[in-house]
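Reopening: Elongation factor methyltransferase 7 still failing for me.
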Amino acid sequence: MSIKQPNEMKIHIQIGQLRYLATPHQNFLLPIKYHFRSNTMDDEEQLDVGMFEEPADFAPPKPPTVAYHEMKSGHKVPIHLVGFNLREGHYLWNGARYISNWFEDNVSSIKDKTVFELGAGGGLPSIVAAILGAKKAVCTDYPDRELIEFIEKNIAESSTLIPEPKDRVVAEGYEWGQSPKPVLAHLDEQGRSDGFDVLVLADLLFKHPQHENMIRTIEMTLSKKRDSKALVFFTSYRPWLQQADLAFFDRARDHGFKVEKIFEHRLEKPMFENDPGDLDVQKLCTGWEIKWPEEKCSA
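Support: Ran it again with your exact input. Result attached.
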């Protein structure tokens, strides 16, 4: 069991795979509401039920799964995913697939570059980057042992597709906004000083309270070379919160970054077919490039 007490004085209590919420004026625990999509938590919503009652839309934990991503070469990359996970690591998101496709269409943007992936889940973009010849890809997610072990398993299963040296892609635990020293430690001396050439953020923008920490991480780790970039690909799976997702880019501009939309793809069907909301929004995946302004670039 683990207990976390955020600044707003809500106490989050983790018991196995279930999470509960208590506030100072309560003498009982409220289960944090499962979102309309099974096993997706929403901290801002609470159910008016006691600790031992299940929400009406409760779905039991799911076992681990495996998904496959087919590259244009025909190679299939297996991605093993944890079962139920509070940090959404149990899905292979659209953003991960389409940023991986973008790498194949823009190999020069990734070959011989250093890559840092945030909130990687199964780690598909980092693995594809390594297959395409990235100099180093550091694939990170929250420092949860199970999440990192699954990334390591996925890297190992694609090792035959990765050119030597095989350690050009590694898994590492990292919490957004914290010191990036453990991540930068995987680079050579020059890289530790300069930062990464490419950052990857695939389907992370729905975590609105973490936008500032994501941008702070970009500030601390993105190299100031002119061609360095943070690639942000995402779908607004909750269409009514699309503007809150897009607010990430306004915040990035407020921090002095240049932001440009570089990709758009409309899927034939949404990832979650029974979800409510505007289907056109749910079927749209866009990609954005965040770069340092010219006056801050060093090379």
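The longest strand covers residues 258-266. If you still see a failure, please send the error message rather than a screenshot.
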